Major facilitator superfamily (MFS) profile domain-containing protein (Ensete ventricosum), 513 residues
Amino acid sequence: MAGGGLAPSNGAVKHYNGRVTSFVIMTCVIAATGGLIFGYDIGVSGGVTSMDEFLEKFFPSVYQQEKAAGGSKSQWCQFDSQMLTSFTSSLYVAGLISTYFASMVTQAFGRKSSMLFGGAAFLLGSAINGVAMNVAMLIIGRILLGVGVGFANQAVPLYLSEMAPPQLRGALNMGFQMATTIGIFVAGLVNYGTGKLHTGYGWRISVALAAVPALIMTLGAIGLPDTPNSLVERGLRDQARATLQKIRGTEDIDAELQDMIEASEEAKKVNDPWSSILRPEHRPHLVMAIAIPMFQQLTGINVIMFYAPVLFKTIGFGDSASLMSAVISGLVNVFATTVSIATVDKFGRKVLFLEGGIQMLVSQVAVGAILGTFFGDAGTGKLSPGLANLVLALICVYVAAFAWSWGPLGWLVPSEIFPLNIRSAGQSIVVGVNFLFTFIIAQLFLMALCHLKSGLFYLFAAFVAVMTLFVVLLVPETKGVPIEEMNLVWKKHWFWKKYVLDDHIKPSHPRGD
Ligand code: BGC
């Protein structure tokens, strides 16, 4: 796209020179593979924790409970074990702590350094998990995996949003979510295969194979340039200019570079991004950094992602059919993400948030009603095969809605709204909150299912209603706005405008084209 380097004096959105180069697409595709490790891990834990050999070796009491379930025992409670859930959720605690350190590395040494460090930690974690002899080794491996995703999720979305030209930022950033869904799907397939092995070590193959996506991301990141924004921030202006020229495919990048330089000079005035983010002019950013990842998790998506095989077993599918159902919902997740990639820069973020929200709400209520009616509160009822398939179909409708709304947007929108001085710190709040709520859901879900039964689905539906209202009222549209010009968006917003002071809107510069 040829932009005019227009300096808006009227609050209009600015356009820079340049076009979408194959170089920028290639770098973004490589960086997005960071989502693979996140996704592989999400997808692998649920399947592994439903494998008999794994349960027998590490969680024998859960294994016995599962075998004993049936007849008069409530199906709702058969997998309720805090130890078992701590296997899944320990990763998120580690991730949420490490992302704070990632923010410092990302700011001081660049986005690429954090990706490399994250990849290395993840590799080590997958090796330890693959040879684990006891629960302690399992948990140590999971902690290292957590450090890996803590760093990767902090750096990759920022990297993508900074590299991408504004008019394609949504689609390129969503490469991260695309890779996440591919990771989840591949993990589901691997579990399906290893679950059939019955050799006692199928789960080992599943967890050790996490090394493959880690290698892809780490090796890929070695060859990546850092973002011009980060290079400017670190005083490497010549390198920033050269990178910007290469990714925008033009020599004339002065307007964009100048905005980055100004953003970085602003950033230098701030010694501590953590206290800056608490200042009133950053209130809208802070609210989004907390609310968006929190709501993303309160959609309940990880109930499906972590526990789909367990959930499908609960509603009456057999072992293999349960793992297969997880593969089906995983495939829906991948394909539905492409809808978002194709439309986000055309229709904007809000349309997707709203459509996805309504679709999720309807399917959650329907699943709750079917389970409540036919499965009963005692959890001793049985679903007919037809109804069990209907529940699977409704879950796919729900997953599709998430995959083109809160899934990718939950990472995209926060990564594009922060000014440079608080960008790294802000993104680590996003990752921290995301992981905190992932942890809470992972830890509480099996217990909540045991107590709330089908009501759990209504609870998530209520959360979705609240977050949809939040989007309508408080989330601004960020489509096409250059990342270092985002303040305009708050200034024009009916509620947030009172927080953004006029001197926080950069003056326009009559720069040449
Ligand atoms: C979320 C994950 C979720 C995944 C599902 C991501 O955006 O952060 O928690 O498991 O989407 O595709």
User: Anything to note?
Assistant: Residues 1-9, 505-513 have pLDDT under 50 and may be disordered. Residues 153 and 410 are 12 Å apart (CA to CA).
